Amino acid sequence: MPQYKAPLRDMQFVLHELLNFEEHYSKLPAFKDNVSRELLDQYLEAAADFCENELSPLNQTGDREGCKWDDGVVTTPAGFKEAYQKYIELGFPSLAVPEQHGGQGLPGSLGTVVSEMVGTANWAWGMYPGLSHGAIRTIEHHGTDQQKAIYLPKLVTGEWTGTMCLTESHAGSDLGIIRSKAEPNADGSYAISGEKIFISAGEHDMAENIIHIVLARLPGAPKGTKGISLFIVPKFNVDADGNVLDRNGVRCGSIEHKMGIHGNATCVINFDNAKGYLIGPENRGLNCMFTFMNTARIGTAVQGLSASEGSFQGALAYAKDRLAMRSLSGIKAPEKEADPIIVHPAVRNMLLTQKAFAEGGRALVYLLSQYADIVEQGETEEERKFADNILSLLTPIAKAFLTETGSESAKHGVQVFGGHGFISEHGMEQIVRDTRIACLYEGTTEIQALDLLGRKVLQTQGAMLKDFTKIIHKFVEANKDNADVKALIEPLAVLNKEWGDLTVKIAMRSMQNPDEVGAAAVDYMYFSGYVTLAYLWAHMAVVAKQQLAAGSSEVDFYNAKITTANFYFKKILPRVRSHVDVIEGGLEPLMALDAEHFAF
Amino acid sequence: MPQYKAPLRDMQFVLHELLNFEEHYSKLPAFKDNVSRELLDQYLEAAADFCENELSPLNQTGDREGCKWDDGVVTTPAGFKEAYQKYIELGFPSLAVPEQHGGQGLPGSLGTVVSEMVGTANWAWGMYPGLSHGAIRTIEHHGTDQQKAIYLPKLVTGEWTGTMCLTESHAGSDLGIIRSKAEPNADGSYAISGEKIFISAGEHDMAENIIHIVLARLPGAPKGTKGISLFIVPKFNVDADGNVLDRNGVRCGSIEHKMGIHGNATCVINFDNAKGYLIGPENRGLNCMFTFMNTARIGTAVQGLSASEGSFQGALAYAKDRLAMRSLSGIKAPEKEADPIIVHPAVRNMLLTQKAFAEGGRALVYLLSQYADIVEQGETEEERKFADNILSLLTPIAKAFLTETGSESAKHGVQVFGGHGFISEHGMEQIVRDTRIACLYEGTTEIQALDLLGRKVLQTQGAMLKDFTKIIHKFVEANKDNADVKALIEPLAVLNKEWGDLTVKIAMRSMQNPDEVGAAAVDYMYFSGYVTLAYLWAHMAVVAKQQLAAGSSEVDFYNAKITTANFYFKKILPRVRSHVDVIEGGLEPLMALDAEHFAF
């Protein structure tokens, strides 16, 4: 059973040495006086303690036990409720909520770092408090003062949780075709009716009330995405002071039997003339939701990083311990009946792949959380706009690339264990099952890829991409004479240029046929992901070299960074070549076969 | 719930048009008079009927219900036992067993084709009769006449089943370190003691007796792989006429909770002074086992093909039915509220990938089964030797490559379903879970890769590889002026040459450091797999073109073959480039990091 250990040293490396979070906060008026490096480290320690000792032990038991549904009532696995109470007592739910709403006013980026630990220790559990964020932010940004006063206080303390009710059985990626209805009541509220599915944490026993944010159509609303409105629908009706009254017409019809995240209740929620309250303008529900799309997607990117980190921790411990065969280059552990499997190059390749994705993914997620801070709290419009561009570009990359590579890492975790990896007790197969959903929800990998190439890159005529490739270009220029990292900087420079050229090529093609965008998008996303991580790995290597040159005593730590960067460039980055060649192949091979002739 | 439909037309294409099985059988004395095309087709129809109507409906229920263990007794899921009775009544167990042992004397290749259908319909079920083959063949080839007379008749009818008991908790890939003991009894039998794990179908309620083939050490046996002997250990002792007597000291200690194949019992089997009988020479147990390694591994390769076929069938039906978004190139189904998702290039890419792996994998597996027939029944020593070389080379490729691509296909199946893919009722996530084991058992992907590059290619100084690349070369030469398939033949010719060059490069390096073999092996296996399938796809395209030129009325079928071949060359085959580049990166990036410095 893998016991989670928060990788604090590596987190601190990214926060303090790579991305200089203290300096970053010092430039944001909201945080410059209240977030020091010491405070950050204190929160890290507290979160690590909670995640290692409270959440990690519930990860496998939660998977085995799962949630139970009985006539609309959902019971979470043993210990989940108690852990949630502790989480509330420790004040985690209110961490990144502004003080005027009862929060601690700390940066969202700190919340992201905490969510990595929560997610790696126990993703299924983490989704209960995790889903509340979307509801809180929706009400915070689009609610009336009264709505804020009624719902926010208890959501912020964690006494209540929240959900996002979007999907219907026939409508997932395509929300334009949802059918749930909202009929106006005489008192200004609405009667919400319809069936929502895949509602994570939609019903459970951990909180006094659940506040659903629901997409539905008003009578006579325009068809498609421009006729969807957003409603607050509480499980229990509440009075103006936030006291819980009678039960609303909201019922959990069933919970799904699914591949993983068994500890989290994935609910069918039936709204039967439930009392709801319009939030935001009529028919603009999707726009309100999209405000938080980036943050929700970064949250899912964290799941990919978590899978890489968790499976790496499990596989590394096993690879040092398990004995099998002798090294091809001669016996390494003569006192044992066989060598530990970490001597075998194929095993090392899997471990280093996990490590490169975990640490590289961490750098990417934390970088995005910085940009998200700036979007929210940046001093000037220009800063905010620039950060929003980078964030918009990198979010679908991080979401799709880190969840897919997280799945790959989880697969390696099983593989390092051999046949034992298939057995539940070792916990490695659970990571494969749990993390698979990350490639599906919040927009599948294919949807992210289209968002990246279609909306973010081509629709802006490459402007967002240029903002980012310029950052890489500057980094390359600043380090081009650094002999220490030449082997990294040179290929990075080439790929950074190729990113633009490849984009132009696809743009030209897509003018002939817009389906060329769909044909290229997934491979383009992978290309972008590998190059983005290459930039971050080169950057980490440069920082590590600097620390060594400055005489740091942590020689092994920094050398490991440099070694892993070299591994990434030699053994992972070459994958871009195939993606470029596949893009080269274009649309035709995908469309030549008539739908009726796929099978006979 | 996906209903399996045997792809009979495609099977017949491979059997009759691509590989000319009738001609193949006509050259084998054992089969030339008793296996016609009509007989083959009759068996296919019978197997399809059984698999579609008896096994497929039990696939999801078996997964949900799983096996139950109670004090050493294992109960299989509802319906499994009854299906097994029907399977026996239909005579399937004895299909490919020689007539002198009570079998039908049909070719092993026919058994392979049947096993594809069984496996795709219900892999977990298929392992109960599947595991018997190893036991039957071990006794057939290495047993005394008395042992054959006692054990074979009921194993062949299927009244009894068999297992292979190799793995121990500490010893999986490395069988040299097993600890189970065999002490001689006064009566010439042996007292077998030890604990074996991961024994598929090790205990169940489907047969009267279970015959275990067990690896154990004699007293004073040499250490390592040269001190292991093989024993027959029946669950119930039997008399000389094969009547079941008292219970032997064999007990199922528990069954594993695992990622998939829940319908199959993966058993811990405890031998406590169980009565066993030496089979084959003392200390030569592993050699006896290795005789069947190729067939067992082809059996596992079938699981990969099954995963590709099964997930393709499920995803294709869904992609034609599910509506979401509009095609980027304009509305395709104006009468519907959205287009079926098969219009989207990314969805088509996943479907075509599954299709290319399923149909290409089928061609590879059936080709191997032909060589296996020749190894067993070929008329001349020369034929048999040549076939054995090709089989030895291609088996680790088929096992590793088809199981990994089967896993990939299964992943695409989930992805095509979006969030619904994660939900158990649709059956797509089950394929991911069930097929994961195929990359682990019968030697992991990494072990297969070492077997391929180390034992089969480098240890033979490339002789086996040359035998196969010559076949490809001949094919290329025969078709180089065929303008119809130029786009396939040219890249195939280049890659076929590169295969040899790449091998020489690795061989040179490995002389400096044998670990270079381990560093290159997995990528070399992928390279080999993609090129092998490229050859088969080009071959299929040539055959399809010939049929069209000959005026076949099945224009859509043959065009689909050609289209899929083009897809494979344009969209799958470019993956070789990255594998070559990664091999280029060599050993150093994998070994530079000290085992103690992987994490801090």
UniProtKB/TrEMBL annotation, chains A, B:
Domain Acyl-CoA oxidase/dehydrogenase middle: 164-273
Keywords: FAD, Flavoprotein, Oxidoreductase
InterPro entries per record: Acyl-CoA_dh-like_C_dom (IPR025878), Acyl-CoA_Oxase/DH_mid-dom (IPR006091), Acyl-CoA_Oxase/DH_mid-dom_sf (IPR046373), AcylCo_DH-like_C (IPR036250), AcylCo_DH/oxidase_C (IPR009075), AcylCoA_DH/ox_N (IPR013786), AcylCoA_DH/ox_N_sf (IPR037069), AcylCoA_DH/oxidase_NM_dom_sf (IPR009100)
Domain Acyl-CoA dehydrogenase/oxidase C-terminal: 283-451
EC nos: 1.3.99.41
The protein's enzyme class: oxidoreductase
Pfam families: Acyl-CoA_dh_1, Acyl-CoA_dh_C, Acyl-CoA_dh_M, Acyl-CoA_dh_N
SUPFAM superfamilies to which the protein is assigned, alphabetical: Acyl-CoA dehydrogenase C-terminal domain-like, Acyl-CoA dehydrogenase NM domain-like
Domain Acetyl-CoA dehydrogenase-like C-terminal residues, every copy: 468-594
Catalytic reaction list: 3-(methylsulfanyl)propanoyl-CoA + oxidized [electron-transfer flavoprotein] + H(+) = 3-(methylsulfanyl)acryloyl-CoA + reduced [electron-transfer flavoprotein]
Acyl-CoA dehydrogenase/oxidase N-terminal domain mapped to chain residues: 42-159
Keyword Nucleotide-binding: no
Entry superkingdom: Bacteria
Cofactor: FAD
UniProt keyword RNA-binding, yes or no: no
Molecular function as annotated in GO: flavin adenine dinucleotide binding; oxidoreductase activity, acting on the CH-CH group of donors
Entry similarity comment: Belongs to the acyl-CoA dehydrogenase family.
Record's function text: Involved in the assimilation of dimethylsulphoniopropionate (DMSP), an important compound in the fixation of carbon in marine phytoplankton, by mediating the conversion of 3-(methylthio)propanoyl-CoA (MMPA-CoA) to 3-(methylthio)acryloyl-CoA (MTA-CoA).
Name under which the protein is recorded: 3-methylmercaptopropionyl-CoA dehydrogenase
Organism, as annotated: Acinetobacter rudis CIP 110305
Upper lineage: Bacteria, Pseudomonadati, Pseudomonadota, Gammaproteobacteria, Moraxellales
